[in-house]
Amino acid sequence: MRVYDSLVDLMGNTPLVRLHKVTAGVSAQVVAKVEYFNPGGSVKDRIAARMIEAAEASGELRPGGVIVEPTSGNTGVGLAIVAQQKGYRCLFVVPDKVAQDKISVLRAYGAEVVVCPTAVSPDHPDSYYSVSDRLAREVPNAWKPNQYTNVNNPDSHYHSTGPEIWEQTDGRITHFVAGIGTGGTISGTGRYLKEVSGGQVKIIGADPEGSVYSGGSGRPYLVEGVGEDIWPATYDTKICDEVIAVTDKESFNMTRRLAREEGLLVGGSCGMAVVAALRVAATAAPDDMIVVLLPDGGRGYLSKIFNDDWMADYGFLTTSSEEGLVGDVL
Ligand code: PMP
């Protein structure tokens, strides 16, 4: 019989899929690591499992514990799945720019969700950082995984995402491209790939224009889950050979193309990462292999990125005459 004991056993081991249409004119291979194949639908299942197991082992998380975390949704889903399997309560704090669909998903898994304003500074008492700190102090038996400082976040990628990619490509990967949010994905995967290849694999960060990682001030952008206005401990500032800034407009139009042309219904940070990967591919050698990580699926963004009115309101819809982009108004 092929029966898994728990969904937790299905986290990780996601496939690599070659991109065909959006890579027209590119000679290097560009392959996507499709993280929506995780049971919670995103790359964040990996860190959820490892952070919880480590906290149980260290005694920080005990039976009857409450998991309190500021999360844009995906980490919450991973934590909620692992927590319910193990009998913990979840209390999540999210910024109000997060799509309503994502919040509904967290509640569907049985988590409690507190929504906080995006347009306040991180040290403001109403910011989602401050509110989650306060709840972690005040709620009895609370444990805060803190994905922004928890070493098990990058370590989960060092032990799973990195080795998977190396094995799946038979060591032929030359470039790894990923968005940077907490920095856990790029730091852990990047560290493994650099070590195993003797420094040969180039690590390229993708970042929303305006975020600090690509030299911005931290000004707002609409793509979710990536970019920062602070420098989290989970980001290894030496890991990237290059960080490429991508606009919201470029990210969202590429996200729509991935659904329409590659059959990949994915989130906005995936479009962002693919735009960066294609910029890398433009100057790469023909036998190079670029692996781009796609963090989540697109169902949580139907009312935004995949909604023409929302795209038009922000001036994001493009015409075919705009270089490299094909939008809806043809
Ligand atoms: N994309 C999405 C949709 C995410 O939720 C996250 C996690 N914040 C990322 C990208 C970035 O991953 P990381 O935190 O590992 O840098």
UniProtKB/TrEMBL annotation:
Keyword entries, A-Z: CBS domain, Lyase, Pyridoxal phosphate
GO biological process: cysteine biosynthetic process from serine; cysteine biosynthetic process via cystathionine
Recorded metabolic or biological pathway in which this protein acts: Amino-acid biosynthesis; L-cysteine biosynthesis; L-cysteine from L-homocysteine and L-serine: step 1/2
Molecular function terms from GO: cystathionine beta-synthase activity; transferase activity, transferring alkyl or aryl (other than methyl) groups
The EC number(s) this enzyme carries: 4.2.1.22
GO CC terms of this entry: cytoplasm
Cofactor(s) this protein requires: pyridoxal 5'-phosphate
EC class of the enzyme, as a word: lyase
Catalysis performed (reactions): L-homocysteine + L-serine = L,L-cystathionine + H2O
Family note: Belongs to the cysteine synthase/cystathionine beta-synthase family.
Protein name listed in UniProt: Cystathionine beta-synthase
Provenance organism: Nonomuraea deserti
Residues of the full protein shown: 1 to 330 of 456
